Amino acid sequence: MLELKDISISRGEREIVRNASVSAGAGEVTALIGRNGAGKTTLLNCIAGLIEKDSGFVFLNGRDFSLPSEEWRKKFSYSIDSGGIIPVLTVEEQLMLACYLIGLKREDGRLRIEHILNTFKLKKYRNYFGEELSAGLTKRLSMALTLLKDTGIYMYDEPFNALDVEGIFIFKRIIDFLKGKGKIVIIASHTFPLSKDLFSRIWYISDGFMENIVDPERKKEYLGYSYSADGDNDETNFPWIE
Amino acid sequence: MWDRIIRRSYFIRTIKSRGSHRLRVAPSAGTALGFMTLIFFIRITANILMIINLARHNVRINFIQNADIHFLLLSAYLIWIVPLTGYQVSGALPSSTFIELLPGGKRFISRFRIHITFMRPVPAAIVFLILFISVSFSLMSRRFFPLIIRTSVVITVAFSAVALLLKVYAWLKPSVTEAQMLHMLFLFILVFVNPDISPRESGIITVVGNRYYELMSIRLTVVLIGVVILSVLILICIIKITSLVSDSARRRFKLSPVEEWYWKIVKFRSWIIIYFLSIPVLFLKYFSLRIKLYALVFLAGISFFSFLAFAFHCDNVLREKWQFSIMEKNNRNLLLKPLLTHLFLTSIPFMSYFTVRMING
């Protein structure tokens, strides 16, 4: 279980989150919602250790990870809104670099990359440079990079931005897969073109306050409209993620 | 492909060779900086060759002192410029990439930064020049020990300082403009401090103030290198603090759009740097009255041309985008407030100088 306790974050003089305490359980998909500028990305960046929080604690399964460390980076995968890819490396090279940093053996890395390229339908773009990719392909690559390693937490910031219908289907399959594997999944977005039932809870962020919503009726109310990708029944699998 | 790829050096070399630094450096500033660097290196090389030539014609040369002043200048270049360039170029690796989010990513970025800082032609040229001075001067003076000690001390101190400054820059994260300003400033200082052979005991003379310097102890050389390191740290802190102060002041005070524009182009920190540099020249007795007057004329020139550049920039942008000219008779009053601010800021060193002179009689 991921627990954020008494978290306060500010940017300059603006308070993003004040003494917020929320949690997300294993096998749960959490929707992080809020208006533009409410602080969704800031919160995810803070969990990932990209920015510092003013105070508060981050616990994973009871262990304190409040200070970002190498060990903490092994516990989560995060796809940032901008994609975070390197303009001068090709799609394949970015995946290879990620494999190298994760410390995968050569053969293992090669297999995972081929599998990922297939799943995300990126095979024909494998020699494209990061700067040549469209916004949608950048998003796919960014998501693909999160799945190279087996971690406990998967975080996605605005995953639906620029994704086409095929991309949304792929993403939906991945979320189903991760949920089935008992992973903690956090998705920050304004819109959710996925079934409302997929989400176990909502973290609603507004004016510095955060709410942990689990009540089904309130969940539906907060999630707003939904676009169902339920018609897509293809299965997906990542053998190294247990 | 895989067999040769899965190595850190492959990725570092690939990112570097594909020219990611083109994303960061403004071409015009790059050309100016490159030109000044060339002048600096030509000046140093010419000096060394001249010293060797004079010694071959049986002129008595103070090799230790000549080596020391050149070591000092070269290590100043290494300490001031190399980490700044390295920081700017390594910034081409976009911030918040997937690398930072992976275990070992921070180490990769730090190695990339070190590689891109040191594995470049300029640090190599500096090390070559230091070694060349050391070997050639040792051979000509037949005094090996003092020069070997000096060379190793200077190289160790300078490279440690570069590593330290890289850490400081990574922590303070100066913006591209701030880094380029510092880069330009340091190169100006280096290019204008020209060491020359003095007719007196064949020691060293510099064009700044026409003073004769005796730099005979290794301790003094190391202290001066320390001063160089401190000057970088002080300047970067001043720049960072003024950025923070001016940002928060801009949020607090309500300014007209043209005033906002003025502060965006003629930054507050530029004034702080101008004051920082002009105060010692204007108030230290070390500088003659003529140099002080030159400094004031230079200051007035900078002020005049910077305001002109600002006004023309506004006019060009407005003409292009809105078909509106700020230079027209009825619109000129828009420039009045920025002009008054500019005149006030320019007058501060003038007023302080003349007030101090009047008080001192």
Low-confidence segments of chain A, given as residue ranges, are none
Q: Helical amount among residues of chain A, as a percent range? A: 25-40%
* Content of β-strand of chain B: under 5%
Structural Rg of chain A:
17 Å
Oligomer: heterodimer
> How far do the termini of chain B sit from each other?
79 Å
Proportion in β-strands of chain A:
15-25%
Secondary-structure-derived class of chain B: mainly alpha
Q: Provide mean pLDDT of chain B, rounded.
A: 81
Outline of chain A: globular
Number of strands of chain A: 10
SSE ordering of chain B: HHHHHHHHEEEHHHHH
Q: What is the average of the pLDDT values of chain A?
A: 88
| Helix vs. strand class of chain A | alpha/beta
Across the major sheet of chain B, the strand order is 1-2-3
Radius of gyration of chain B: 24 Å
Largest interface: A-B, 34 and 27 residues
Structure annotation, total helices of chain A = 7
Strand order of the largest sheet of chain A: 6-7-8-3-9-10
The number of helical elements of chain B comes to 13
Write structural notes for this entry.
The complex is a heterodimer of chains A (242) and B (361). With 242 residues, chain A is of the alpha/beta class. Chain A is built from 7 helices and 10 strands. Chain A has helices at residues 40-48, 70-73, 91-102, 106-119, 135-146, 165-180, 216-223; strands at residues 2-11, 14-24, 29-33, 55-60, 63-64, 76-79, 153-157, 184-188, 201-206, 209-213. Chain A has a 6-stranded mixed beta sheet, sandwiched between helices. In chain A, strands 2-1-4-5 form a 4-stranded antiparallel beta sheet, covered by helices on one side. In chain A, helix 3 crosses helix 4. The longest helix of chain A has 16 residues, at 165-180. Chain A is globular, with a radius of gyration of 17 Å. The model of chain A has no long low-confidence stretch (mean pLDDT 88). Chain B has helices at 2-5, 8-17, 27-56, 63-90, 105-118, 121-141, 144-172, 176-192, 218-252, 257-265, 268-283, 289-322, 336-359, and strands spanning 195-197, 204-206, 212-213. Chain B has 361 residues and is an all-alpha fold. Chain B is built from 13 helices and 3 strands, in the order H-H-H-H-H-H-H-H-E-E-E-H-H-H-H-H. Helix content of chain B is 75%, strand content 2%. In chain B, strand 1 (195-197) and strand 2 form a beta hairpin. In chain B, strands 1-2-3 form a 3-stranded antiparallel beta sheet. In chain B, helix 4 (63-90) packs across helix 5, helix 7 (144-172) runs parallel beside helix 9 (218-252) and helix 9 (218-252) packs across helix 11 (268-283). Chain A binds chain B through residues 45, 48, 50, 70-71, 73-74, 76-78, 80, 82, 84-89, 93-94, 96-103, 106, 109-110, 142, 145, 149, and chain B through 2-3, 5-8, 11, 14-15, 18-20, 23, 93-94, 96-106, 108.
